[in-house]
Amino acid sequence: MQIEKKTVNIGFNPLTDCAPVVMAAMLGFDEKHGIRIALSRETSWAGVRDKLMTGELDAAHALYGLVYGTQLGIGAQPRDMAVLMNLNRNGQAITLSRRLAEQGATDGASLAALMARNVDENSRQYVFAQTFPTGTHAMWLYYWLAAHGIHPMKDVRAITVPPSQMVYNLVEGHMDGFCAGDPWGHQAVLDGVGVTATTSQQIWPDHPEKVLGASLEFVRAHPNTCRALVAAVLEAGRWIDASDENRRATAEIIAAVPYINTGKAAILPRMLGRYDDGAGHAWRDEHPMCFHQGGQANYPWLSDGMWFMTQFRRWGLLKDDPDYLAVAQSVTQLRLYREAAEMAGVAVPAEVLRSSTLVDGHVWDGTDPEAYAASFPVHMRN
User: Fold this and answer.
1) 76-100 pLDDT, tens per residue?
2) Which run of H or of E encompasses 265?
3) Domains in the chain and their CATH numbers?
């Protein structure tokens, strides 16, 4: 197999789930497959999108919804995009400020009750941050608020803040809460400035999270490079998930200044599935962040991409229903993934759709996305 581009520039944001791309380079899985991963630490998801468009980055640790939002031209000129693989499942959180917790708001129901009381007592706007307008964190935040009767477009103000700046902005009182990937939710708990109201896996157990994204133009020009890249990252994810010892070693590496630049104590517990919400509740999570799961976590299910489009439609980011399946088939590089998985010795499911039940009881299986998008009592559809 002739590799078209030996050095591959890969962007990432400082989050725990950048681990597979970092470890693919650190452990030499890239060299095993004939490439060299050159890592680039980015400061925002908008920066990742823009650098993928200009070619400064060849591929990136990216938000699922960022890839689909760019494909559909939401907030920017449309550009044909590609999902090469899923990088992980689970491991994000919605954090409420300590100020809200002291007023009794520590979960969705108590937040809704507090907001209802304040409507009568003193009118003020609640502000919640997500990391990118079409990203996963925006969708988890909106879904969770709506599931508790809080309209995310009318009852609160949503702002966009880069993940590594969430804790600072919470401390400064610029917002009442945020949704972001770890370690920033756990960092807020450690610093005593926030409580974990819910984890993303409580919203959707084993949900899709980050992907390895690229422009379709890059993939078509460099298919063998992309196969080698996916194979290398698959091997890294499998290695991380193989043992707690490997997760500890990974946390040690990614905590360093070139990557997340935070203490290992903010990263490791939740990597091991050990959660403390900062409000007196600690537990061992049944659905912690995972990077492989025998390939199940990495397989780019068509229904996963379609779900994000249903939420874009629900919240008025799309004025009309797209051809959900056709768009997902165009973006998701299933054939390339299967070939790369074979190179890495990773099993591939035969199906392209999967079924899940979310926190509000809605079942998503990808079979009727138009009806699903229209089925919610809280939405912004035309």
Assistant:
1) 899 999 999 999 999 999 999 999 9
2) helix 264-271
3) 7-89+208-273+288-348 (3.40.190.10)
